[in-house]
Write a structure and sequence with these properties.
alpha+beta; 3 helices; single chain
Length: 146
C-alpha cells in the first residue's frame, strides 16, 4: 500500500473557518431578543398581551442644605507639621506621635504609628528634596524645613 497525501490537510496560514471556534465567546445559535409588541389601541386589549401602564413622574425632592463641614481630620504628616511648628530642636517620631495624640490632632488604632510617621516623613523628604516641609537633622530627628 502506498502513502497518499491528505488533500484536506490545513496549514497554519490557511485555516478553514469553523462553525464554533473556542475562545470567541459567541455561540452560533445566539440571536438578539425580539421586542415585545403592545397593542396599537390600548382600549382594545388583546388576550395574552401585556399593556403598558402610564405612570406619573414623581417630582424630585428638594435637596436639603448641606451642613457646614466639620473640622477636617488632619493627616499624620499634617499633624506632625503642626506639632513641629515653633520647635527649635529636632523631635523623634515617638515624641511627635505622643504630642499629636495628647492634642487630639490625630488618632490611630495601629500598633506602630511612630514607624508610619517616620516612613511618611522619609518618603516626603526623598520625593521633594529641598522643597519638602520636613528636614532630617539627625538619626530619627525631624524639624520643619525653613
Amino acid at each position: 500500500m502506498t502513502a497518499t497525501a491528505n488533500p484536506t490537510k490545513v496549514t497554519k496560514g490557511n485555516k478553514a473557518p469553523s462553525a464554533n471556534k473556542k475562545g470567541t465567546g459567541k455561540k452560533p445559535d445566539q440571536t438578539a431578543p425580539k421586542a415585545s409588541t403592545a397593542p396599537a389601541n390600548p382600549d382594545k386589549e388583546h388576550k395574552g398581551e401585556a399593556t403598558a401602564v402610564a405612570t406619573k413622574a414623581k417630582p424630585k425632592a428638594e435637596k436639603a442644605a448641606k451642613p457646614e463641614k466639620k473640622d477636617k481630620k488632619l493627616s499624620l504628616k499634617d499633624a506632625a507639621a503642626k506639632v513641629l511648628t515653633n520647635c527649635k530642636e529636632g523631635r523623634t517620631c515617638g515624641e511627635m506621635v505622643k504630642l499629636i495624640k495628647e492634642r487630639g490632632l490625630w488618632n490611630s488604632a495601629g500598633l506602630t504609628p511612630e514607624r508610619t510617621l517616620s516612613a511618611d516623613l522619609d518618603r516626603d523628604i526623598a520625593k521633594h528634596g529641598a522643597e519638602s516641609r520636613f528636614q532630617k537633622v539627625g538619626k530619627g530627628l525631624y524639624l520643619l524645613n525653613g
